[in-house]
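Can you give me the bound-state structure? Components:
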Amino acid sequence: MNTLIKPALRQLKRYPVFSLINLGGLAIGIAASFILLVYTQRELSTDHHFRDADRIARIGTDFFQLGPFAFSQPMLRPLAIASCKDVEDATGFDTKSDPVRTNRQDRAFTGIISYLIDSSFFHVFSHEAAAGALPQNGLAPGQAILSASQAQKFFGGKQAVGQTIYVGKDLTPYTVVAVLKETFAKSTIDPQLLLPQPRRTAEETSSWWNVKTYNYVKLKPQGSLAGLNAWLERLRQKVVYPASGSTDTYAQWKTKGTSVFFYTEHLTDIYFHSNLKFDDNPGGNLTQVQLLSAISILLILLAIINYINLVTARSSIRAKEIGLKKTFGAPRRTLIAQLLKESLLFSTLAMLLSCGLIQVILFLYQYSTGAALTGPIPFLSANYLWLILFSVAIGLLAGIYPAIYLTGFRAGLTVRSTAGSGRNTPRLRNSLVTLQFAIAIGLLFVSLVVYSQLQYMKNKDKGFRSDGVILLQDVQALNNLDITRKFQTLRHLIDQQSQVTSTSLCAGAPTGSTLMRGSYRTAAMQKEVLLQTFPVDERYITTLGLHLTDGRNFDKNLLSDTNSLILNESAVAAMGLFKPIGALLNGSERVIGVVKDFNYTSLRDKIGPAVLRFSPQGNSILAIHIAGGHPAAFLDWLQQTEQNILPGENLETSFIDDNFGRLAAKEKLLGQAISFFTVLAILLATLGLIGLTLFTIERRTKEIGIRKVLGAGNGNILRLISGNFIRLALIASAIALPLSWWLIHRWLDNFAYRVTINAGLLLLTEGLILSIAFIVIGALTLRALAANPVKNLRTE
Amino acid sequence: MIDLKRISKWVNVGGKPNFILKDINLDIKEGEFVSIMGPSGSGKSSLLNIIGMLDDSSEGEYFFLGQGVHGLKEKQRSQLYKQYIGFVFQAYHLIDELTVYENIETPLIYQNIKGSERQAMVADILDRFQIVGKKDLFPTQLSGGQQQLVGIARALIGKPKLLLADEPTGNLNSRQGEEIMDLFKQLNNEGVTIIQVTHSEKNAAYGSRIINLLDGRIDNFN
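Here's the bound-state model for the whole set.
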């Protein structure tokens, strides 16, 4: 062993720059692709960590074409437990977001999603406690369980179990009985606070149109989803259909839009494949996972290529040693083993280095993107076993070619030290460099396209004013006149603020999660259509900056306007109205205006039809447009005023572009991840290029010296050294650009509104790569020239 | 043609100047054939490099064709030696990756001579040195004598006024060495000024004048 390690370490010491580049490159490659590997592995196994995860399924529902929803009827759970023979147990939880306080006087923590759980929650979803004991049969009234992160947030380092928290506006006290253990595994079931489910009301246990409960069942080992579906179908026929009071026969009823439908899916399919509304979790993006795993393979490929290139490039030095050993009678197998051991030693060193680099890269990622790619990867976990296997594989992969190449020389030739004659630089090295360039170019191009698509989505005219609009939720209290009056006072004060240009009471803003359908038909239509409807007041168009293209706005002084509608252009088209103004819908509702299309979902989807319905009373959202772009002062004022007028009420404020931003969050994450790892890939490729250039210069020092003596200028030498690399880069772009163009087009096809890829982007990619290459080669060559290569001639 | 005035060259070793050349005064006229002799380490090659403008002196003045070289910028100096000086090395210093033809052509490329003209000039010199048949071979495929012939051809291709040779026959056997020296003599007769560094008395005798160096000084008593 000593005979291996000592010379190998001496090698490292003797060529410090070279070794650092090689080792650093390999370590970066291992670290980055390891992170991506862990990331994709974690994404792909989302929800798999629950005990019997493959037996858990969710039941969703739909009616009136509003859904399909991820949640369903509260009464499904008792029915399923009682009468479905495929089901072992079932749980249903409602979610809500209430302010939480740790004592009555303090400011509330907001934005916490709590799960109201029943007695079967832990039977279906296995959890472990970090502190306290999990009540396996559900929480008793007045008990609560916290997630580890919330416990930390509420109580800092203090013991959370036994403490009291106060939930909601009425400050209901709960005693914390346990804290959930944090897992590295990802889950769509991610409660921050667990509270007991209150008794179901009569309406909840009898109506098929009351849906708000996330219903999960655990199937029996011999049960199946098909069995569950069959049971649900029988339920529709025997229970739901009679309850609907429909005059149709069952056969007619069951396919109608007004019927009740059920949707079942395996828990493990939900993260990537579910597309139901009101899914609490944003869901995964399979394209992203695939793209990032592809990038992880490319990164490790880059690192391996670097290693192979740098090792074979130095073959003239090593070949002499190998040749000498051959003349002493060392068999080729021994020599191959020696070189493989060396590369294994090397990859082990790189692995050790990468353990530190992993943390650095994760930190840099979080720092530069503001989002964590994975949680902190727990140390000494199974993941790190993978890291070890991974680096052994890399060591072998990277070492095998150089080992065979180097030991293949005839002994006599190499000892004479005239190796490297003629003009053939190894064809393999050229192809590998081309491949490296191609990877860098392809990745850069892809990430530029992704970036410009994201910019495009951000800047695209959504048809409404998306910045400077603040939404105030729940500004009404149905049965409390006093509070309602106070709300009016608050709104009055808001209106008086100089920053505020306009406010509007509405039932929904175009934030993607709005869901309100109305049915409409003209006299000429056979069937009614269901269209997205926004109940609004007369200041909605001004506040949100919608563009009225035809007709007029609502007028609160016209009594007749309570039956008026304003349509967007898509709705006009959907209804087939040639002269929309004055048209009558549903017999009595008159169209008085048309607004330009505005996007109320995401840019992935085409703008849908939308109807504004005049409804000056009873709306619960106050939209406020403030001018000047300094909302912080206004928000401070708002909070103060709110506390004065309505103490104890915590009004939820949000920006309309935040809401819209959440829709683009998935794409944004993809963009960030791609650009981050593209930068790493380019760094790796650059390291390789630096190594190879250094080597080329070293090998050609004599030639450079001779040429200088023969009268070559620095420009001539620069052209000489960079020429080959630039040529390879151009060949690489000819391969990489069309390929990545084709690939990224398939991604862009997911969007209804997308950028067009123009020649400018191609040129930018090409220009960036070529200038990086040229700067690297140029700097190194000039450095070498400054050392006066003519001197080397004399030392020979 | 060459006028060296009080030329000294030293390198700092441990903070102390270590003299390689000391106070060299030398005047070489056009058409001379000068041999520089001396034991190893006496500064022969350093002197040749300074004359060939490959290296700077630490002190003193150097006039080439009446022009002060010591004050010139790198670029002008390079312009000057490209035009007037050809080099021949002991180790030939041919470019391994280039053929005989391309090796000879290289200086012309850097003198910005047009392609067709280059072709004519190279063909001319290949013919004169009788190595036309070797033009597509690589240096490693030639014997030492042949390589040196190519080296000389390359040095002469730009029609230099001055040929500098650093032990041109050092790596050759005596027969090849004699051929090379005969060639030098012939070139000198055609008007090329030649300065050669050599160990061999016999080779030195080809020249018209011998300069002996000892410990960095010109040894006048020999």
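A couple of observations. Chain B touches chain A through 27 residues (CB under 8 Å). The domain at 28-58+73-218 of chain B is CATH 3.40.50.300 (Rossmann fold).
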